[in-house]
Write a structure and sequence with these properties.
Blueprint lengths: L1 H19 L2 E2 L11 E5 L2 E5 L8 E7 L6 E7 L6 H4 L15 E5 L2 E8 L4 E7 L8 E5 L7 E4 L5 E7 L1 E7 L12 E4 L10 E13 L2 E10 L5 E7 L7 E6 L5 E7 L5 E8 L5 E11 L2 E4 L8 E2 L31 E2 L8 E4 L4 E5 L14 E4 L4 E12 L4 E8 L4 E8 L2 E9 L4 E9 L3 E9 L6 E7 L5 E3 L4 E2 L11 E8 L6 E10 L5
Antiparallel strand pairs: 1-22, 2-3, 3-4, 4-5, 6-7, 7-8, 8-9, 10-11, 11-12, 12-13, 14-15, 15-16, 16-17, 18-19, 19-20, 20-21, 23-26, 24-25, 25-37, 26-36, 27-32, 27-37, 28-29, 28-36, 29-30, 30-31, 32-33, 33-34, 33-35
Length: about 525
């Protein structure tokens, strides 16, 4: 009865949105943080953060500012080092590349980001954001939360830092900082907040509107919520005056976007438990040369924009792994947990399955390569798959995971010549196997349900021997957003070895639903 009530609530919310024909916040109920947004004609583009995932820095497209679809990534792999490759005990969970800044000037698209893992600042450029690969430019050092900006005179700048914000000109070939141009832009950017600060001002995004410069930052006062701060100047070299722009629900970090009919919004995000950091839109009015965010200082739940549609298939999607000639091996909804080992996975497009081969021996799942992932979505979602385990080797593990530091998975272990259906997860500080069932067949069906409604953040796992009759296994996992991974939970397909490499598991499909399917 409990699961039925959740479905009814979800259906009620969905029907309500459709009946009102208006957008609701959150804009996307999934992990899409550190948003940077531009409008080119009547089309909007948005970049976000996916940190340790490869490919990285997803680019999304919308024609109504509400409903988005993935169109590209800034890079396939960030770097070829131990941390990005999950080798020699190194990893880049929660690191990789962080906040990006997306711009469009004179027919060219630019995207800047940074990586403490690689120790570099990156600026990408392309003339076709949807179809052309990005050209990569990089230089040292890694400039934290940088905002890329091209002024009317053609000069290029980066603004970066936390608390003390710095600015420097960038060389026309994007190869680094122009020597002698680095200086402090704002000495104490969180000064407009009078309370003691837990997180100094960061997340810079610079805009120019009607000849004035507007710099967006976030800060976090102790005992308070994440707060939007805006500084304004008449010239980029002038002194800056700042004010608190929004302090509601912790919705913060982002900037400005306008519509073709002259309306303005601020794009921001909110920490929302285990599903991750989710984007919001907030209406903006201009008063005395300042953008005023929200309605009476509050984030509205409804917006005068077209209604939200399902995040399926634009942000996440089911996959039967069948491919036609010319199709990409993996649609854009898929990302690997780190750089993939391309010698040990393949898509059989004719028969329709994903094959994962163990390429080395690992002692735990978080250090295993080639976990193929997609976002979870809220308020509830279900992911399922079917696997052929006939070619597993002794002490192999394979299955379906809800991936975060406090992960949970359902799948198959092969031990002493016998296969077992198991559910394993991190219920306390260490992983533990919660339940196992003897398995005497080579095909098995797996399912995981994630319930984020009202931040319940609970997961349940199931198996089936025939794809029709499902049985729960392992109990309920309490999901938790943790900083070591710094990302919302993801569905993942995996196969790893703990004794010898070479075992193979074939995944017949991945099915995702925005309901609780039991």
């Amino acid at each position: 009865m409990k699961s039925i009530r959740l479905v009814l609530i979800h259906l009620f919310i969905t029907s309500l949105v459709g009946a009102q024909d208006r957008a609701i916040n959150p804009l996307i109920h999934a992990d899409v943080p550190d948003v940077s947004m531009i409008r080119v004609g009547e089309t909007y583009y948005m970049s976000s953060t996916t940190m340790h995932m490869s490919p990285g820095v997803p680019i999304m497209k919308s024609t109504d500012l509400v409903n988005w679809e993935l169109v590209s990534y800034a890079y396939d792999t960030l770097a070829d080092i131990d941390a990005t490759n999950l080798e020699n005990g190194e990893n880049m969970y929660g690191r990789g590349s962080w906040a990006s800044c997306l711009r469009h000037v004179d027919g060219l698209y630019y995207l800047s980001t940074f990586s403490a893992t690689a120790g570099k600042t990156f600026i990408f450029s392309t003339s076709d954001i949807e179809n052309e690969p990005w050209r990569r430019h990089s230089f040292k050092p890694s400039l934290h939360d940088n905002s890329f900006f091209i002024d009317d005179d053609g000069k290029m700048y980066l603004i970066w830092g936390g608390g003390e914000l710095k600015i420097a000109e960038i060389k026309p070939d994007l190869s680094g900082v122009v020597p002698g141009t680095e200086r402090v832009l704002i000495e104490n950017a969180h000064a407009p907040i009078k309370d003691p600060i837990m997180l100094p001002a960061e997340g810079s995004q610079l805009f120019k509107v009607d000849g004035k410069y507007y710099l967006f930052n976030i800060a976090w006062p102790k005992g308070g919520v994440r707060t939007v701060i805006i500084h304004r100047a008449d010239k980029i070299t002038d002194p800056w005056e700042g004010r608190v722009a929004l302090q509601d629900k912790g919705v913060a970090q982002g900037g400005l976007i306008d519509t073709p009919d002259g309306r303005w919004f601020s794009f921001l995000f909110r920490d929302n438990g285990a599903v991750g950091r989710i984007p919001y839109l907030v209406p903006v009015e201009w008063k005395e040369g300042w953008p005023v965010l929200g309605e009476n200082g509050k984030v509205p739940m409804e917006l005068d924009l077209p209604a939200n549609k399902s995040l399926i298939p634009g942000i996440v999607a089911s996959d039967d792994f069948k491919r036609k000639k010319g199709d990409a091996d993996l649609p854009l909804v898929w990302q690997w947990n780190h750089n993939p080992d391309n010698d040990n996975w393949k898509i059989n497009g004719k028969k329709g399955y994903l094959s994962l081969t163990t390429g080395r021996v690992d002692q735990d799942i978080l250090n295993s390569r080639n976990i193929l992932t997609q976002r979870t979505i809220g308020p509830v979602c279900t992911g399922s798959t079917a696997i052929d385990v006939s070619k597993m080797k002794e002490r192999d593990r394979s299955g379906l995971i809800l991936l975060q530091k406090k992960y949970g998975w359902v799948g198959v272990k092969y031990e002493k010549g016998q296969k077992y259906l198991v559910m394993e997860g991190v219920f306390g500080e260490l992983p533990e196997e919660k339940e196992r069932v003897k398995l005497d067949q080579d095909q098995v069906y797996l399912k995981a349900i994630a319930n984020f409604l009202d931040r319940k953040d609970e997961a349940q796992f199931f198996y089936s021997l025939d794809g029709k009759n499902w049985k729960p296994i392992g109990g309920t996992l309490k999901m938790a957003y943790t900083l070591p991974h710094f990302m919302g939970y993801r569905f993942g397909l995996f196969n790893y070895a703990t004794k010898e490499k070479g075992g193979v598991v074939n995944f017949d499909y991945f099915q995702i639903s925005d309901q609780i399917d039991k």
